[in-house]
């Protein structure tokens, strides 16, 4: 029964998305740019793979942040110049990177120790699905994708402040903001904020997505149609400034 | 000082027989014990249970052991870069236990610290929690996860001395120190083996007490998985 209504909701969102592609929406960099505004001076931040990685490019001038890479580095620097790659120095996405003045290196147990002990101020990660009670699914598609959860379960279970950066709908055109997740969960009741190409959302403690900002040129109605989960929006939702 | 030096990888792994449980250090292809993996492939030992954060790529790292069907079971957190791995998993030839990365690291740590179990919130409410004891501390649920019990830990360090003291370099440290502490027998291969007294005691990451065998490695390829660079400013 629930699945039926879910598939109906998804069907309608699918139809809408075809229309939405003509609109001026945010691209991945736009999502990253908006999230970068959530980063405050002095934060230690863990960035996941995908859109979250792009956030590093938009951290405002004068805001000092330390990026954690969970394979054992605080103070992740930019990619090395060609010819200066060091195979012993990579990030959690296995990309060659650099250190910065003040960087520190540690083992994997300490890396997750500081995550578990909430020393990291902000975690930004991607998702396949988020439910209206804050559950997240981002590690497994049964029978299809068996890559593993990496550090995602540790991060979502412990982080005090998590922002999900993701597309509002999946490649099949189905809403990723759902009444409840259909994929195996990564964590329960842990997501409080979501930024997609359509808007910025809070996950309310009592359940449901609260629309805080609309992406430029996107109407509340359009966002409502692309959101399968419960959506709350005030009459006058401001447009995102990016 | 006790001398822990063995001649090479073949000697170091000589008593690893079929069906043993091995820990292998490294994150991706960074800091993996290349020499010991080659020796294990050459020896052809089978039905191994491997505890390692990743499973290498098709033609390097643990991927080489998978190609030879030497692995019965993998315990890892992320195995996304290996097509042969995925094939063996989907066909049922390979048993796989995927566990959160922090849980993996901390179960190693527990073994090395002599603690039977840890409590972690990672995986609460997910399929990782199935069949596990849950405890509530201060209003939050935690899973009880057992310390690993591995016959051998195989790690790669940058420098080591003849007494087994180890120093790691940069992010190739990753799982190596915690696995070094966790094996019943720990084998360390190093890029540079030095005499006792040459390493500053203040700079040792893994005390030699945890290391049973050490050897000077050779021909390190140190393959890069994702070569990413930035352009010089115009």
UniProtKB/TrEMBL annotation, chain B:
One Pfam assignment: CoA_trans
SUPFAM superfamilies: NagB/RpiA/CoA transferase-like (SSF100950)
SMART domains per UniProt: CoA_trans
Keyword Cell membrane: no
Keywords recorded for this protein, A-Z: Transferase
Record-linked PROSITE patterns: COA_TRANSF_1
InterPro entries: 3-oxoacid_CoA-transf_A, CoA_trans_fam_I, CoA_transf_BS, NagB/RpiA_transferase-like
Signal peptide: none
Single GO MF annotation: transferase activity
Superkingdom of origin organism: Bacteria
PANTHER family noted in UniProt: ACETATE COA-TRANSFERASE SUBUNIT ALPHA, KETOACID-COENZYME A TRANSFERASE
Family designation: Belongs to the 3-oxoacid CoA-transferase subunit A family.
Protein name in the entry: CoA transferase subunit A
Species annotation: Pedobacter helvus
């Amino acid at each position: 029964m629930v699945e039926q209504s879910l598939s109906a909701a998804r069907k309608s969102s699918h139809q809408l998305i075809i229309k939405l592609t003509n609109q001026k929406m945010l691209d991945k960099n736009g999502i990253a740019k908006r999230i970068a505004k959530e980063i405050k001076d002095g934060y230690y931040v863990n960035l996941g793979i995908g859109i979250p990685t792009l956030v590093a490019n938009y951290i405002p001038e004068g805001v000092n942040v330390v990026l954690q890479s969970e394979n054992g580095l605080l103070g992740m620097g930019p990619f090395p110049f060609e010819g200066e790659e060091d195979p012993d120095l990579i990030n959690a996405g296995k990309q060659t990177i650099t250190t910065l003045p003040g960087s520190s290196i540690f083992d994997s147990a300490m890396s997750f120790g500081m995550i578990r002990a909430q020393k990291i101020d902000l975690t930004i990660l991607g998702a396949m699905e988020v439910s209206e009670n804050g559950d997240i699914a981002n590690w497994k598609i049964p029978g299809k994708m068996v890559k593993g959860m990496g550090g995602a379960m540790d991060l979502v279970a412990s982080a005090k402040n998590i922002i999900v950066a993701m597309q509002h709908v999946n490649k099949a055109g189905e809403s990723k903001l759902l009444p409840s997740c259909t994929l195996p969960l990564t964590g329960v009741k842990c997501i409080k904020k979501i930024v997609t190409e359509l808007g910025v959302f809070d996950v309310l403690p009592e359940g449901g997505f609260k629309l805080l900002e609309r992406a430029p040129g996107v109407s509340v109605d359009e966002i409502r149609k692309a959101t399968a989960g419960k959506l709350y929006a005030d009459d006058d939702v401001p447009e995102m400034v990016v | 000082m006790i001398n822990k030096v063995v001649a090479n990888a073949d000697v170091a792994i000589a008593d690893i027989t079929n069906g043993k449980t091995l820990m292998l250090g490294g994150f991706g292809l960074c800091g993996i014990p290349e020499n010991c993996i080659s020796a294990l492939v050459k020896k052809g030992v089978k039905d191994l249970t491997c505890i390692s954060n990743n499973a290498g790529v098709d033609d390097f790292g643990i991927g080489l052991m998978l190609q030879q069907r030497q692995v019965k079971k993998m315990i890892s957190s992320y195995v996304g870069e290996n097509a042969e791995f995925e094939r063996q998993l989907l066909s049922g030839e390979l048993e796989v236990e995927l566990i959160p990365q922090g849980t993996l690291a901390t179960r190693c740590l527990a073994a090395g610290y002599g603690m039977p179990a840890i409590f972690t919130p990672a995986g609460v409410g997910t399929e990782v929690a199935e069949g596990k004891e849950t405890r509530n501390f201060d209003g939050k649920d935690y899973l009880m996860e057992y310390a690993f019990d591995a016959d051998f830990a195989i790690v790669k360090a940058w420098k080591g001395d003849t007494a087994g003291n180890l120093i790691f370099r940069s992010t190739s440290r990753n799982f190596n120190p915690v696995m070094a502490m966790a094996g019943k027998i720990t084998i360390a291969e190093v890029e540079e083996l030095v005499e006792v007294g040459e390493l500053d005691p203040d700079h040792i990451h893994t005390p030699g007490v945890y290391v049973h065998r050490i050897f000077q490695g050779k021909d390190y390829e140190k393959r890069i998985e994702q070569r990413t660079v930035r352009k010089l400013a115009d």
